[in-house]
Amino acid sequence: MSIKYSAEAAGRAAAAINERVGSRHATIGIVLGSGLGGLSKTIDDAVRIPFGDIPGFPDATVVGHEGAVIVGALGGREVVALSGRFHVYEGHPAALAAFPVRVFHALGAHELFVSNAAGGISPKLAVGDLMMISDHLNLMGTNPLVGEHQDSDLRFPDMTDAYDPGFRRILRTTAERLGIILREGVYAGLLGPSYETPSEVKMLRLLGADAVGMSTVPEVIVARALRMRVAGVSCITNAAAGVTGAALSHAEVLETTNRVSATFESLVTEFLSRSAAPQLTAVR
Prior knowledge:
Blueprint: H1 7-21, E1 28-32, E2 44-50, E3 68-74, E4 77-83, H2 94-97, H3 99-106, E5 111-120, E6 130-139, H4 165-178, E7 182-190, H5 198-207, E8 211-213, H6 217-225, E9 229-239, H7 250-275
Parallel strand pairs: 1-4, 1-5, 5-9, 6-7, 7-8
Antiparallel strand pairs: 2-3, 3-4, 5-8, 6-9
Helix pairs in contact: 1-3, 3-6, 4-7
């Protein structure tokens, strides 16, 4: 891993954030994917910090990504949210794609909620569905932990339960309580930025993927190396190539996330409230 995105660099970024927010201490970090940044507008007492004001953070370049860190309260918890993210397909190293997770950890967050927009591979998934991520396939050809070992990290993190079973249980019961249909499946992370070919989608289906996207995996790997508990949800914004024969576009991604944003926001807010309850926290 590049020393540029080390624990020490994360500490400097966290210090810059703390200068703006004072004594607030986030307990969970949230990463908001393409078109899902509307959740950040529901955060109470929010302090918004543009990426450009944080050491080590480049500007966001993808449409649908605001490019700001927001600190405030949501679901009765202190949170730090990333509205937008850094992608390997933009030319960034995987270590940078995961760097905000190190900053969350340096701010005191030991839990992580990741979200993304994804293409549906499984025939059980429809456009507009929310899918709880149960596992992932790292097909990006890179890993954010490659390189010099950080003392803060597990060198060989166990990824057996990368997406915390206790959090997954809480997500299921939260969705049931709210009357939200919540699917469950395996997310395949590919490099992008081109969408997959129909043949590649057939391959992914054979490998066990239910949905496919271009993010999330580096963030989750670093979170597990830092011993953080992780929950993840994909918004199925389109059928993957060859599933329906329709052409794919980023505009469709943003249109779908806008349509389901209220459902996503209610699920995340209630999850945050319920995951803070000691009796619902998984035994580790």
